[in-house]
Every structure is written in C-alpha cells, then in structure tokens.
Amino acid sequence: MSNEHNILIQELIKMLQGGGAHATLEDALSDIEPQYRGVKPHGLPYSIWQLAEHIRIAQWDMLEFSKDGSHQSPNWPDDYWPKESEPADGAWEKTIEQIYADRAKFIELLNSGDIYAKIPHGDGQSILREALQIADHNAYHTSEIILLRRLLGIWK
C-alpha cells in the first residue's frame, strides 16, 4: 500500500475514535450514574440511553452491511431507536461494550482491503463511505449526549 493510503487509513481511524476536535464518545458515555441514563431533560425527545443505543444499532448496521451481503438492516427509523427511555438491567454495559467492539471490527475492515471499491451488495457504497458515515453519525450523537449531560448538570 502507498504511504498516502496508509495516511488516509490512520486519519479515518482517528475520526472513528473521535477526540481530534471534540470530546470522544468514551468521554461522553463515561461516569453516567444509572439514575440519569433514562432522563429526557426539558422535553427533549431522547434520553442518554436512547442515544447510546441508537449509536450502537446504527453502527452495527453499517458494520454488518459493509461485510455481509445477506445482512438485513432494521426498519428505518423505528428499529434504530429503542422505545424505552431507560436501559433494562445490564443493557447499558452491553450497549457500551458493543459500540466499542463493533468500532474495532470496522477498523479491521479499513485495514483489510480496498476501501474505495464498491461494496458488491450495495448501491454504490464503499468502506470509505461507510467509515465517514459512522464517524459523522457518532460525532453528531456524541454532541447530543454531551448536551443532555450539560442540561442534567453531569458534564465536566
């Protein structure tokens, strides 16, 4: 691989992990006491739990789409958002673990092939496009989590 390609891969990984120009998802999701995870402050439509679970579902869908032609995406938008505002017992930890595990799996995809090639079962998408979409989507919702934390008085 060319030096330029390696530089691009490293920059994509930095985007996926966040933190270059803003707080990371890890920062946004750390040290949130259980009593705050399901609160919808000031009439906002989502809780921190719903945002975290939405990130998990969307990122998982993009990962699976990128690697598996038989993957069936959830129905948009209903199946991308949890109905419950609070996580069930153990769901918070499971969601957070899967977000980070799926991100690591996607980074493996970045390092394993042609990021520019069209995904065979897609309609023009590439691994590069999916990487940019995951990074953009996660950054957007990370900022929403931070906003909710500020409104709840639990941000740094």
What does this structure look like?
By secondary structure, the chain is mainly α. It has one domain (3-14, 48-152). It contains six helices and no strands. It has helices spanning 3-17, 25-29, 34-37, 48-67, 91-110, 127-152. Helix 1 packs parallel to helix 6, helix 4 (48-67) runs parallel beside helix 5 (91-110) and helix 4 packs antiparallel against helix 6 (127-152). The chain is globular, with a radius of gyration of 16 Å.
SSE map:
Blueprint: H1 3-17, H2 25-29, H3 34-37, H4 48-67, H5 91-110, H6 127-152
Helix pairs in contact: 1-6, 4-5, 4-6
Fraction of residues in helix? 55-70%
String of helices and strands: HHHHHH
How much strand?
Answer: under 5%
Approximate shape:
globular
- Average predicted confidence as pLDDT: 95
Q: What are the segments in which pLDDT stays under 50 over at least 5 consecutive residues?
A: none
Number of helical stretches of at least 4 residues:
6
Helix and strand content put the structural class at mainly alpha
Largest sheet: none
**Count of domain modules:** 1
Cα distance, first to last residue?
42 Å
Question: How many β-strand stretches?
Answer: 0
Instruction: Report the C-alpha radius of gyration, rounded.
Output: 16 Å
